[in-house]
Design goal:
With 372 residues, the chain is α/β, with parallel strands linked by helices. It has 2 domains: 12-246, Type I PLP-dependent aspartate aminotransferase-like (Major domain) (Aspartate Aminotransferase, domain 2), CATH 3.40.640.10; 248-371, Aspartate Aminotransferase, domain 1 (Alpha-Beta Complex). Helices cover 38% and strands 15% of the residues. The chain has 13 helices and 14 strands. The chain has helices at residues 12-17, 19-32, 39-52, 63-73, 91-98, 117-123, 143-149, 204-213, 235-244, 248-266, 298-307, 337-345, 357-371, and strands at 56-60, 81-85, 102-106, 128-134, 156-159, 167-168, 171-172, 179-183, 197-201, 218-220, 223-224, 273-274, 288-292, 346-349. A 7-stranded mixed beta sheet has the order 1-9-8-5-4-2-3, sandwiched between helices. Strand 10 (218-220) and strand 11 form a beta hairpin. Helix 2 packs antiparallel against helix 9, helix 4 packs across helix 8 (204-213) and helix 10 (248-266) packs parallel to helix 13. The protein is globular. The two termini are 23 Å apart. The model has no long low-confidence stretch (mean pLDDT 96).
């Protein structure tokens, strides 16, 4: 009998186990009549701030909007430059562009694919107003090194969309830079039930600006001190996420155990692949991304796994400096070799918390079979 398919990601396994509790939360919000911001959002913000170890946590409408609001809060706009990695999701640089500033692309490290401090330092100019570091795939970027190379007065912003709960040197993502930006998109470590995001900071003045910017630039009705936008978090999202937050530690531990199992099954098999570091302290494995020694085998491997009913994804098929909308900014092809190689050579395997050990065994067996 053909075994059931293994999805790349499946939220229903966890959500259905909480269905009764989630339905009760929905009823509670309906009965309250508070649907945007309000008590549920304030409580969620307080709980996130305590969990992340930050002074302020501010709910917004999405991870993309978290990035945009953070940049706006710093006053970044036309004529400014923001250094960011070339190998990341589009929203990182897209948010910079939307402010009128210019994203300046730097290369990434060959092991973690996080922003390379040496490349970032070379990308800094007199017009640089921020460095935007991404905690890619749930692994914190080398923040100490990035903070060290940032010129005086140039903040380092954390794009922590994939890294809620990740840690570096005993501190959690979102508490390492001037501002942290999170996403609650359903596939994230702390996944919501639609779009949602969070901005974190230690600075009272930046928190106040974010609060204004997310509500059309007004802290009181019809009194606009800034030109903002509609970046508010829905009360229902906050209420549902509040029920998931206490479970996050257990969910992250499952992801780490899955990574250890993959490493045990694939790491000693002599395969022409590189694995993420399953022992990396604080890594949350929002994605489990392998790297093939021969880029020409990446797509055939993905097709082979699909034939076995195993879902995979490519994060990301093209680096940002080679995307059509950003190509005129440069640098040219070949200038950021690690990011360009990563786009050709990487493949993400299933690692969501409810994945079973048997399913991981099947994925590993299929990969070994392909190379055999």
């Amino acid at each position: 009998m053909t075994p059931p398919p293994i999805p790349f990601f499946d939220r229903t396994r966890g959500d259905l186990a909480m269905q009764g509790e989630l339905a009760a939360v929905f009823e509670e919000v309906v009965q309250s009549g508070h649907y945007i911001l309000g008590p549920q959002v304030e409580a969620f913000e307080s709980e996130c701030a305590a969990y992340l170890g930050v002074r302020h946590a501010l709910g917004v409408s999405s991870g993309t909007d978290a990035l945009l609001v953070a940049l706006m809060a710093l006053g970044i706009g036309p004529g400014d430059e923001v250094v960011c990695p070339a190998y990341t999701f589009f929203a990182t640089a897209g948010a910079v562009h939307r402010t009128g500033a210019t994203p300046v692309f730097a290369d990434v490290l060959p092991g973690s694919f996080n922003l390379d401090p040496a490349s970032a330092e070379r990308a800094v100019t007199a017009r640089t107003r921020a460095i935007l570091a991404v905690h890619l795939f749930g692994d914190c970027a080398p923040m100490d090194e990035l903070l060290a190379i940032a010129p005086r007065g140039v903040p380092v912003i954390e794009d922590a969309a994939q890294a809620f709960g990740a840690e570096r040197a005993g501190r959690r993502a979102g508490a390492l830079g001037e501002l942290g930006c999170f996403s609650f998109f359903p596939t994230k470590n702390l996944g919501g039930f639609g779009d949602g995001g969070l901005v974190t900071t230690e600075r009272d003045d930046l928190a106040e600006r974010v609060r204004s910017l997310r509500a059309q630039g007004a802290r009181r009705k019809h009194h606009h001190t800034l030109v903002g936008g509609n970046f508010r978090l829905d009360a229902l999202q906050a209420a549902l996420l509040r029920r998931k937050l206490p479970r996050l530690g257990a969910l992250l531990e499952r992801r780490r155990r899955h990574a250890e199992r993959y490493a045990a099954l694939l790491g000693g098999a002599g395969l022409p692949i590189s694995l993420p570091d399953a022992a990396a302290a604080g890594h949350t494995f929002n994605q489990y991304v392998i790297r093939l020694d021969d880029a020409s085998l990446r797509d055939p491997l993905r097709s082979f796994l699909a034939e076995q009913g195993i879902g995979t994804e490519v994060y990301y098929p093209a680096p940002l400096h080679l995307q059509p909308c950003f190509a005129p900014l440069g640098p040219p092809a070949g200038a950021l070799p690690v990011a360009e190689a990563a786009a050709r050579e990487t493949l993400a395997l299933p690692i969501f918390p409810e994945l079973t050990g048997e399913e991981i065994d099947r994925v590993a067996t299929a990969i070994r079979s392909f190379f055999a």
